[in-house]
Amino acid sequence: MIFSHQEKTQTTTSTEELLDDGCHLILYNDDVNTFDHVIETLISVCKHTYDQAEQCAIIVHFKGKCDVKSGSYEKLRPMCLALLNAGLSAEIE
Q1: Which CATH fold topology does 24-92 show?
Q2: Residue 79, phi then psi, degrees to nearest 5
Q3: pLDDT tens, 46-56?
């Protein structure tokens, strides 16, 4: 017979930690900006590859919004402000 002993460990995560890492930068569709502008801005601000930025632009166009980046609020805030300054519609959820 083979016996094994596995210790059960429980990790606790504070609500604050969950909230900090659980934020999403949402980009919304508009009738003003071109695909090229959105793609270039996502590459510049969010450090997306061209393919990632293009996919996000397509999703935004057809679905109305897209989660373009996840992370802590502190990490996403400057990105959100940069998207807004570029004339895009975005918010952190």
Answers
A1: Ribosomal Protein L30; Chain: A, (3.30.1390)
A2: -65, -45
A3: 999 999 999 99
The pTM of this model reads: 0.77
Domain edges within the chain: 24-92
- HEC profile of 18-68: HHHHCEEEEEECCCCCCHHHHHHHHHHHHCCCHHHHHHHHHHHHHHCEEEE
Q: How far apart are CA 43 and CA 21, in angstroms?
A: 22
CB 86 within 8 A of CB 36: no
Mean of all residue pLDDT scores within the chain:
87
Report helix, strand or coil for 80: helix
Task: Please tell me the distance from the alpha carbon of residue 1 to that of residue 82, in angstroms, as a whole number.
Answer: 63
The span from the CA of 38 to the CA of 29, in Å, is 10
